[in-house]
Amino acid sequence: MPTAAKTPVTTLVWYYPKSGRAGELTRLVAGHWSTLHRLGLATDRPAQVWSARDKRSGDPFLVELFEWRDAAASETAHQTPEVMAIWETMGPLLESMKLAQLDPLPIA
Q: Is residue 31 part of a domain?
């Protein structure tokens, strides 16, 4: 049985672009997982990315679902120049962003 430190961490990210910046943000998010994976920070399970629109406001946003290799991988990413180059480029394109760690519920 894998230890908690080596267990993949399922992560859901909501990216809310600034007005007129959705296309640029989409291009960055499209390459996000492949960079994490190539650097050994994400599992082999490919990320899923969706284009979404708020049903009330109509505002566009992106949703990305992926798995970190383990609990330490996101911290390693913050010290990895290739990843930081992507994240720092995303910053000016974002109105806001939400991150969630998903933990399965044992529902029968």
A: yes
pLDDT digits (tens, 9 = 90+) for 23-65: 999 999 999 999 999 999 999 999 999 999 999 999 999 999 9
**Residue 27 falls within a domain, yes or no?**
yes
How many Å apart are CA 42 and CA 33, to the nearest integer?
Answer: 7
Q: What is the domain count for the chain?
A: 1
* Secondary structure class of 78 (helix, strand, coil): coil
Are β-strands 9-17 and 94-102 bridged in parallel, bridged antiparallel, or unpaired?
A: antiparallel
User: Among 69, 71, 73, 51, which residue's Cα sits nearest to residue 61?
Assistant: 51
Q: For residue 45, what pLDDT is reported? A: 97
Can you give the residue range of the structural domain that contains 32?
21-44+79-92
Residue pointed to by tokens 């993949």: 8
Q: Provide the pLDDT for residue 1.
A: 41
